[in-house]
């Protein structure tokens, strides 16, 4: 039987030490609490994120190792660069947050459901309204062909999910985001859980202890709060 700490409903900034996370499933740390802006900001600042299905309680995670991008280390293939020039796609920020999040939540081939339920949509929409959650959109004319969303606190960006409506759409969003973060001196983009697709684009794994220390340090630095709508990518 798994025994987990339950988060106190009245203490949104209090979490267990991430080093107390379970080995199996990797990184499971606690359950309960809520998805209030205060709790979410506190979680990301400590290297913790929520991840749960709609039929589960809120689960909080901090896996070891942690998957991240160094913003100066993204691998962009020549074919993708050629595709971006050829197709004439444009990349924007915070122009269609709700649409991007809904697209990320849409069922995908081989997956029975989605972890981005209505509670998550409401919570991150509120974070977006407060200037913490941001989207990156890729457009072909008026058509949304790819995008991603995540949370920025200080100089830490935590990616949550991405989607492609056309081949290369999510990669184009990631390239645009990394270019922007590098310009703003955000050294890390948190990708949370490792997979082959992320590794193929230059993601690396670092020890949880190293990531948590970086998250605490970077989230305390001055960042780019508020809307990114007027940013040129």
TrEMBL record:
InterPro entries linked to this entry:
Acyl_CoA_acyltransferase (IPR016181), Leu/Phe-tRNA_Trfase (IPR004616), Leu/Phe-tRNA_Trfase_C (IPR042203), Leu/Phe-tRNA_Trfase_N (IPR042221)
Q: Which SUPFAM superfamilies does the protein's record reference? A: Acyl-CoA N-acyltransferases (Nat) (SSF55729)
EC class, as a word, reads transferase
Highest taxon listed in the record's lineage: Bacteria
Catalyzed reactions per annotation:
N-terminal L-arginyl-[protein] + L-leucyl-tRNA(Leu) = N-terminal L-leucyl-L-arginyl-[protein] + tRNA(Leu) + H(+); L-phenylalanyl-tRNA(Phe) + an N-terminal L-alpha-aminoacyl-[protein] = an N-terminal L-phenylalanyl-L-alpha-aminoacyl-[protein] + tRNA(Phe); N-terminal L-lysyl-[protein] + L-leucyl-tRNA(Leu) = N-terminal L-leucyl-L-lysyl-[protein] + tRNA(Leu) + H(+)
GO MF annotation: an example: leucyl-tRNA--protein transferase activity
A Gene Ontology biological process in which this protein takes part is:
protein catabolic process
Subcellular compartments:
Cytoplasm
State its Enzyme Commission number(s).
2.3.2.6
* Alphabetically ordered keywords of this record: Acyltransferase, Cytoplasm, Transferase
What's an example GO cellular component term for this entry?
cytoplasm
HAMAP family (UniProt xref): Leu_Phe_trans
Q: Give a short account of what the protein does.
A: Functions in the N-end rule pathway of protein degradation where it conjugates Leu, Phe and, less efficiently, Met from aminoacyl-tRNAs to the N-termini of proteins containing an N-terminal arginine or lysine.
Q: Which family does it belong to?
A: Belongs to the L/F-transferase family.
Protein name per its UniProtKB record: Leucyl/phenylalanyl-tRNA--protein transferase
User: From which source organism is this entry?
Assistant: Luteibacter rhizovicinus
